[in-house]
Fold these 4 entries.
Entry 1:
Amino acid sequence: MKLDVRAFGLSVGIIWGASLIIFGFLAMLAPNYCSDFVRAIGSKYIGYSASFPGSIIGGIWGFIDAGIGGLILAWLYNKLAR
C-alpha cells in the first residue's frame, strides 16, 4: 500500500499547525498550563509566543515545517515499501 504524499504532508501540517495555535492560546489564557512548551517551541519557530499574533505565526511555521516533514516521510515510506 502506498501513501498519497501530498495528502499526508497536508494532513500532518494541518494537525501540527492547529496544535501550535491551540497551545499558544492556552498558554495565553492559562499561563501555568503549557507556557513552558510554548517557550521551548518558540525558541525554534521565530515569532511563536503566547499571544494572538504569536500563536498564528507559530501555526504557520508549524504547518510549513510539519508539512515538509510529512512529505518527506510519506515519500520515503513509498520508496521503501514493497
Entry 2:
Amino acid sequence: MLRTRVITAVVVLLILLGMLFFASPAVWSLFVLAIALAGCWEWSRLCGLSSTGQAIFLLLSGALGGAGWTLYLRATEETFHTVGLVALAVSAVFWIVVAPLWLRNKWRPAPWPAAFAGWVVLWPTWVAFVELRERGPWVLLAVAAIVWIADVAAYFAGRKFGKRKLAPAVSPGKSWEGVYGGLAGVALYGIALALASRTAPLPVSTFFEPAAGIVAILAMLVLAALSVVGDLLESWMKRGAGRKDSSRLLPGHGGILDRIDALTSTLPLAALGISLAAR
C-alpha cells in the first residue's frame, strides 16, 4: 500500500509540475478542466443521485466545461476575467457563508441541489487554476503551499497536542489544536516569504511590500482557515454517501476530490483577492 501510494504521488507530481511549468496556457487550462470534470464525476457519486441523474449531471457538467474552455480560448482576455470574477465571487460567498452554515447545522440538501453545489465548488477552482497560473507558476505554487503547510502543521500539532475534537461527526481525526498549529505554520510561512522578499526579488514579492506585508499574512491565515472548511465539507459529503474515498482514481490516495478538497475553498478566494488588488 505504501509503495503504491509513493509511486502514485511521484507520478502525479511529475505530471503536475511538467504541465505547470511547460504547458501552454491552452493546454494547462484543458488539463485542469479534466481535473474539474473528474471532480464532477466524483461529486455526483456523493450526492445521492440515481444512475440516470448522475448521467444527466455529467452531461451538463461536460457542456458547461466545454463552454468555459471555449470562452477562455475565443473570448477577449477582459471578458474571460470578468466572467471569472463573477464565478470567484460566488465561490467566496459559498465558502464564507453557505458551507459553514451547511456544516454547522448538519443540513444535507436534496440530491440535485447538492449536485449543483458541486459546480460552485469545482468550476471556480478551475478558473482559479487558470488565473493564478497566468500570474506565474510560482505564484500558484506559493498559494497552494498555504494549504499544504497548514495541513502538515495541523497533522503534527494535532498528534502532539490534540484534545478537543473539531468536528467529531464529520472528521474525527481533526482537533482545534491541530487547526491552531496549522495557522501557526502558515503564519511562519508568511513571515518567511516577507523576509525573503526583502533580500531578493521573488515572484510573490509584490504581495509583501512594506505597506502590504501584514495584510498578505492575514489573508494567508484566512485562506488557511477556509482550507479546513473545504476539507470538512468533502469529508461530510463522503460520510453522507457512506464512502471512505471520493473514488479510486489515484491508487493509494483515493480520488481527485480527496487531494484537492482544501484547494477548492482557498484557490478561488486567493485568485479573487489577487485579481481585485491588481485592478
Entry 3:
Amino acid sequence: MADEEADRVKGTGIMASQAEAGLKLFKQDADAKTDLQGATKYKEEFDAKINALEDKAKTLTGKDNKTERSQIGKDVAAMKIEKKYIDACKVVKGLEPKNGFFIANEAEIAATAAANKAAIEAAAAESAAAEKAEKDKKEKSKDKPKKEAESTGISKEERDELEKLKDQIVGRKMQLKEEGMSGGQQNKDPEISGWVKRMNELKEKQDPGSTQVKKKDPKKSKQPLSQEEEKELDSLRGEVEAYRHRLKTEFGYTNKDIKADQDLKDMEEKLKAFEKRAG
C-alpha cells in the first residue's frame, strides 16, 4: 500500500508539470489562430498610403521642395514602424503578431488559459495534500511500535529487579540445600515463595501468558496436578531459569558445563515430569 501511495504522489507531481507544459503548447497553437484576412487588408491599405507618399516625394524635385521631401520621408519611416502595421506584416508572413493585433480568438485564449491555470493549481494542491498524508502515515507508523513497547514492556528498574530476584532465589535455595532441605521444602520457604511470586509477576508483565500453567486436557491427563503441585510447578519454572542464569553469570559456567550440572538436571527432570502431567 505504501508503494502505491508513493506512486500516486509522484504521479500527481508529474501531472502538474504536464499541465504546465500543455498550457504552453496550447498557447502556441492558439496564438497561431490569427486574423489573416484582416491583416492582409490592413497591410494593403497601409502599403497604398506609403506608396502614395513615396510617389509624391518623387515628384518634388529641386531645392525648393527639399523640406517637403524630407518631411514625407520622415512620415513614411514612422508609418513603417507603426505597431499595427508591423503585426499585419508578420501575420501575412505566417508569423506571430508581437503587439497583440489581428488575433482572431482572444476570448478563447483567455478562457483556456484561465482553465489551465485552475487545473495546474488544483493538481499542485492535490500533490501537496498527498505528500503530507504520506508523511503523516510514515510518522504514525514510526510511533506505533514505540507506544506498544511502552504499554506492554517493563521498565529498566523492573528488569534490574527481575535479575536480582533470580540471584536471590538461587542463592537462598543453595543455602537451604546445604542445610539439608529437599526441593519441596525449599519451595515453601517464605522468602523464596515471596521472591518467586514477585518474579512471576514481572515475567508476566514482560511477556503476558509466559507464566500461566497450560490447561489440562482431560483425555490426556489421568493424574491431574493438585493445587499444591501446580504452585510447585510454577515455582520450579522460575527456579530453573534463575539457577541456570546464576550458573552462567555468577559462576562463569559454559553452556556445556551448565548442561552437565547435576542439580540442574534433577530440577529439569522434575519440571519435565510436572509439565507432562499438566499437559
Entry 4:
Amino acid sequence: MQSLVIPATGLVYRTLLGTGGIGSGTFFAVNGNHTFGREESRSGRFLDRNDYCKLHIVAHYVRTLLGPPFTAAPIGKVGDDAAGRQLLAEMREAGLDLRHVVAETEEQTLTCICVVYPDGSGGNLTVDDSACARVTPEFVRKAAPALAAARNAAIALAVPEVPLPARAELLRLGTAHGAFRVASFTSEELADGANHLLLRNVDLLALNADEAAAVADLATTRDTVDTVAAAVARLRALAPCADLSVTAGRQGSWTWDGRDLHHLPAHEVDAIGTAGAGDAHLSGILAGLAAGLCLHEAHALGSLTAAAAVTSPHTINKAVDRTYLARLAETLKAPLPARVRALLETRA
C-alpha cells in the first residue's frame, strides 16, 4: 500500500498529548437481551476479541489516519506484566510516542470485562485499582514541556479510566499552553454538578447519548434528539465556547459548533463489534480537525471511522487508514464533503 503523507505545513495540530485508560479486556457474550439484574446468574461465553481502552484507541486511530509527521503521545501507566508489555509493543508498532508511558512494578495493567448482549449492545466492568489509577496530576505535569514545545499546535485529550484530578490537570496545562482541549467523562462523573466546572477548560466535549443525558441533568435519555438538544442548551450555559460531539449508535451522531447542530445517520455496514465505536468516532473528528477541517466536516470523517471500526471484532481495527476509509466510502457510496475526500486521497 502506498504511504499517504500529510505535509507538516498542512496540519493545524501536529501533536496529541492525552491521558486516559491504557489496558485490555475480555468480551463475554451473555444469553438474552434483557439488562443484567442485580442478583441474576446468566449463561454466556467468552469471545475471541481484543479489547483496548479509550486513550489507546483514540491515539492509535489519530496517529494512523494522519501518519508522520503527526505525533500521538499517551500519558499513562501500565503494569509491568504480560498484558502491559503486549500493549506497549502494539502501541510502539502503531507509531505512538511512548516517552510518557511508564510500566509500574507491583501494579496490574488495567483490565475490563465487556458484556455483550445478543442485539450488539453492551457495557464494561473495569477494575479501579490498576496502574491507571496511579496516574496523578504530578505525573501528568511531567509532560508539560512537550505541550509547551508544541505551542498552539497541540491537542490535549483527557478521557476516562484514569482519576479525574489527573485529567483535570492535563486540561489545565492545555489551557496554559494554548492547546485544543478535548475531553469526555462518564455518566457518573457528569451527574456530579461539581465536575461541570471542568467544562470551562474544554474546547470539544465528546459524549454518548447516556452521557449527554447526564450533562443535561435528565433522568433518562428519553428521545435522543431531545436529549442532544438539552445537552447543547446545558453546555451553552456551562461552557459557551465549547463544541459538542454526541454518538448514539444506530441513530447516528451529532456535532454542535456553537452555531449549528449537525446530524449524520450511521453508515449501514455489517457490524461485528460495536465496542470502541464512539472512541473511533472521536478519533476521526480529531484527525480531521488536525488536518484543518471544520467540525462538521471532521464529523463526517468521524462517522466513517466509526463505521470502519465496527466491521472488526476488536476495539481497534488495525486495517484502518485513510486508504481503507476511502475504499469504504466508495463501497458505501457515502456522500462526503469535498475536503474530507481530498484528505483521504492526500499523497506525499
